[in-house]
Design the sequence.
C-alpha cells in the first residue's frame, strides 16, 4: 500500500472561505496543532497565494510575511509551504518566504499553461526549496494534455506535479485516468488536490492513490474555495482505513480540526450549496462562488443560470469580468457571448 505525504491546505485554500481574514494567531494555533498531529506539509497564505491580497480577489487581514513567520515559528516537524501563481506572486515574494523559513514552493497555473511556471520553479529551487508544479482546474484538460504539461514541469525541475481538481467536477474514473496518464509520462511523484462540489473529494482521493498519487491535499473541516476541499480529518482516516500509510495520527488530526474550528467560530463550515453543485456539474472554477453570488444579486439574474453559462464559456481562473458580463446579459435576456 502507498506511503502518502499529506499536505494540509486549510491555512491557504481555507482562507477563501474566510475571505482572506486569517490572522497570525489563527495560523499559529492551527499550524501548531497540525504539526502535533504529524501532517507532513502545511500550506499557508492568502487563498490565491503569495501576493494575492488585492481588491481584485480580496484584501488579506495580514501580510504574507506575517502569516508565514507565524507558522514557521511554531512548527517542529512539518514543512511550511506557499502557493505562488506567477503574476500575483513575484520573485521578491519567494525570497521573503525562503527567508521566513518556508521549505516548499508550489507554483500554480492553469492546467494547460505549465510554461508560465518555469522561472518561478527554477528560482524557488535556487533558494533551496522543494518545488511543486501545480496544475489548476485539471478537470478542464484531457489526460493526454495533462501528461504533456507534467512533462514540462518535470523538465523545469519540479519535485512533484500536483493535479488540482479545482472545480470538483471529475468522478473517480476520470481522476484515475488523469493520474494514470501523468504517471506514464513522468518519473516525479504525483499529487492530487480535490474540491468537493459533487461530494466526491474523498472517493477521488482514493482513486488517485490507487493509480499512484502519493501527495494528497486536504483541509480541516473542508475549509477551501467554493464547496471546500476534502476534509483532512476524513481523508486521513479514510486513507488509513483503505490500508495506506499516512504519517498523521487520527486523534491528533481530530484535535487539530477542533483547534481550528474554535479559532474561526462562528464562521459556518463550508456546505455544498446549490451554486456549488452546479459549479461542479458545469466545471466552473470554485473561486467564482462569491463573484457569482454578488453579480447575480446585483444584476438580478438566477445564479444557477449564470453558472451554467460560465461553464459553456469554459471560463478559467481570473476571468471575473466575464462573470459580470454574463450576469448583465442574462438580466437583459441576451444570449451568451460567443
Ligand atoms: C489559486 C487557487 O485557489 C488554487 C487552488 O487551490 C485550486 O485551484 O483549487
Ligand atoms: Mn483549491
Sequence:
Amino acid at each position: 500500500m502507498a506511503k502518502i505525504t499529506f499536505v494540509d491546505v486549510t491555512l491557504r485554500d481555507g482562507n477563501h472561505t474566510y475571505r482572506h481574514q486569517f490572522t497570525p494567531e489563527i495560523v499559529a494555533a492551527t499550524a501548531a496543532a497540525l504539526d502535533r498531529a504529524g501532517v507532513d506539509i502545511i500550506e499557508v497564505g492568502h487563498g490565491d497565494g503569495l501576493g494575492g491580497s488585492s481588491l481584485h480577489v480580496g484584501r488579506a487581514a495580514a501580510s504574507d510575511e506575517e502569516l508565514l513567520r507565524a507558522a514557521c515559528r511554531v512548527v517542529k516537524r512539518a514543512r511550511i509551504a506557499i502557493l505562488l501563481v506567477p503574476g500575483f506572486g513575484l520573485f521578491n515574494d519567494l525570497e521573503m518566504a525562503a527567508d521566513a523559513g518556508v521549505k516548499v514552493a508550489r507554483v500554480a497555473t492553469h492546467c494547460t499553461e505549465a510554461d508560465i511556471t518555469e522561472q518561478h520553479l527554477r528560482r524557488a529551487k535556487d533558494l533551496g526549496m522543494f518545488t511543486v508544479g501545480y496544475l489548476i482546474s485539471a478537470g478542464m484538460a484531457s489526460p493526454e494534455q495533462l501528461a504533456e504539461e507534467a512533462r514540462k514541469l518535470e523538465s523545469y525541475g519540479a519535485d512533484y506535479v500536483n493535479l488540482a481538481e479545482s472545480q470538483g467536477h471529475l468522478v473517480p474514473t476520470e481522476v484515475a485516468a488523469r493520474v494514470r496518464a501523468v504517471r506514464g509520462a513522468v518519473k516525479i511523484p504525483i499529487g492530487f488536490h480535490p474540491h468537493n462540489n459533487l461530494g466526491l473529494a474523498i472517493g477521488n482521493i482514493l482513486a488517485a492513490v490507487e493509480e499512484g498519487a502519493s501527495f494528497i491535499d486536504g483541509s480541516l473541516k473542508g475549509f477551501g474555495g467554493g464547496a471546500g476541499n476534502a476534509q483532512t480529518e476524513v481523508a486521513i482516516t479514510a486513507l488509513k482505513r483503505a490500508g495506506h500509510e499516512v504519517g498523521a495520527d487520527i486523534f491528533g488530526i481530530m484535535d487539530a480540526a477542533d483547534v481550528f474550528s474554535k479559532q474561526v467560530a462562528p464562521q459556518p463550515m463550508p456546505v455544498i450549496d446549490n451554486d456549488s453543485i452546479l459549479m461542479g456539474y458545469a466545471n466552473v472554477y470554485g473561486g467564482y462562488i462569491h463573484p457569482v453570488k454578488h453579480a447575480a444579486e446585483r444584476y438580478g439574474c438566477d445564479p444557477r443560470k449564470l453558472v451554467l453559462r460560465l461553464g459553456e464559456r469554459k471560463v478559467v481562473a481570473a476571468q471575473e469580468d466575464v462573470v459580470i458580463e454574463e450576469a448583465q446579459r442574462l438580466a437583459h435576456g441576451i444570449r451568451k457571448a460567443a
User: Anything to note?
Assistant: The longest strand covers residues 104-110.
